[in-house]
Design goal:
The chain has 484 residues and is an alpha+beta fold. The strands form 3 sheets. It has a 6-stranded antiparallel sheet with strand order 3-2-1-6-5-4, sandwiched between helices. It has a 5-stranded antiparallel sheet with strand order 8-7-11-10-9, with helices on both faces. The radius of gyration is 38 Å and the shape is rod-shaped.
Length: 484
Amino acid sequence: MPSYSSRSLSVGSIAKDVTALPEEPPAPHAPASAAEIAAAAYASDMFVFRRVGERRFAHIGGVGRGMGWAGIVEIGLETEPLVESVLASGAVLHRARPEPWRIVGPYYAHAVAVVPVAEDVFVVFGSTTDSITAVADDQLVELARFASEALLEVTPAKKLADELEALTAVQDLLHAPVDTFDDGLQRLVDHARVALSCDLGVAYVRDDERVAISDERGCTPLTRECVLAALAEIVSYETFPLCIQDAETSELPAPFSSDDGVLAYYLLRITNPLPGLLLLMHTSAGAPRGFTLLCQALGLRLVEAAEPLLSAALLRDSMREELSRVAAEARRDPLTGLANRLAWNEQLSEVSTSPEMPTSIIQLDCRGLKRINDTSGHAVGDELLRRVAFVLVANVRPADLVARLGGDEFGILLADADESQARTTATRIESALAAAGRPGQPNLELAIGTATTLGSDLDEAQRRADAQMLDAKRRESIRLAPLE
């Protein structure tokens, strides 16, 4: 490693437009601020790295992103061949490309100068233009040495600000309970994407293939269907968490590959209450960058904080499902599976009628059921009731309500059906029941009453249909097929 002399530096006269280079670099003769050092290198960002382990370096300060990321970027030489080659050679490296590319850690830029200062220190100057490549190596060495001497450590205020940022992000995630598990999954991915400044985030739970997508790329949004296969593959990965600063070095399946515009990604495991993952991505649709240590720590904190939130939401989902099941059971006839009288009465109270939309009611009574129960047994009678229920449902519209009102009595509520339609439906049911008879088994016949209302009380219509049914039951004799 070569040694470099240390000199003071003056940069106060540097032009503001870094794309218009002066003929000669400013003469170093007086102390300068970090911003002036970066300006002298025509750099929008400056990073100072110090060794913290045998092959690890931590970023301690700088300019631009180098200021905001102080204390939250750490690299290992095993994943940074560019830096490793610079430290090994002791030479300044210049490189520029038309498109932003990953330079070191999470940092992306168009142009870069990586400057070794000593065995334990190097400085990175980055820019969105190639002006930086015109600065002489010896001038960059002087600027880098001055920057490394001026920035000794991350300030306590910066550390506190980073910690407060993380705490605030977690508090915002937990500021209110979520109503459902799916809502909680969506809140997690939305909040994590914003907190980590990502363009794209996906949360996935393997059970029931639940997916929540947060997509701010400004293009056609991803859909659940187009990501399911990829997520089912990714969730089986063995390494979690997994932070990849350059997606090309460890590709995810489409639509999350580098060909799909993904630059860097951070993969976290969701453990409780259901196994899954959180995938956060920086893409070419946003400012090119990777994930700082603060971002990585924040992602872990958000997943950890979200798990109790998701557990509570899943419990509420389970309670709602159980209440819904109990409510449905309370409104279902256990023998036929039809609605019962409670469901029937509730539906009657909720139906809106009008002269433009008539509503009809059909009341039905199974004549002869008592005799069949007495002679053939209740099991035969129950089977006949189930047959009647099947015939009724098969001969009305899906939106019509069929209910067993008790014993051998049934009711049908026909919305938007006039008197003629009600009579036609009743006739169709009689014919279908007769055709459903089985040789050697008893048959039932129906006493039927119908009534139609045009904006009047449905209870009154039901009373008229019931009276008509009772009248038919009295007038007609019971006819039964021979019993075995």
